[in-house]
Amino acid sequence: MSVIESRKDSAYGTAIALVVSDMTGREVSDAQVFVALRRLERQGLVASIPAPKSEPSKRTRGRPRVFYELTAAGKGALDAAGAYTNLVSADQHRAKERKHGRQEEASNIAPVVG
Which fold has domain 2-107? Predict the structure, then answer.
């Protein structure tokens, strides 16, 4: 959904698949993206918009290009996901600091020689 929000002028299936592939370093097929887009649309998180004057191509199998945009519910879900991610990241950062603090404390203790 963040790809749709950030690339409003090019948020169509194939372009989304290319961006997600680049972001993840894994090949993502158009079919995978279209399945996800259909689910998001059924959930009311994205809306499809047929492109004006879209020329059908071999790649689109004769169908006009369809663009996607986030709905208000989709923007809310994206914001909530971002807030959750920030919260989890902050918790992970604090946990690392506590762990490193304990390791430093342990390294400052002189060994007992018997």
Answer: Arc Repressor Mutant, subunit A (1.10.10)
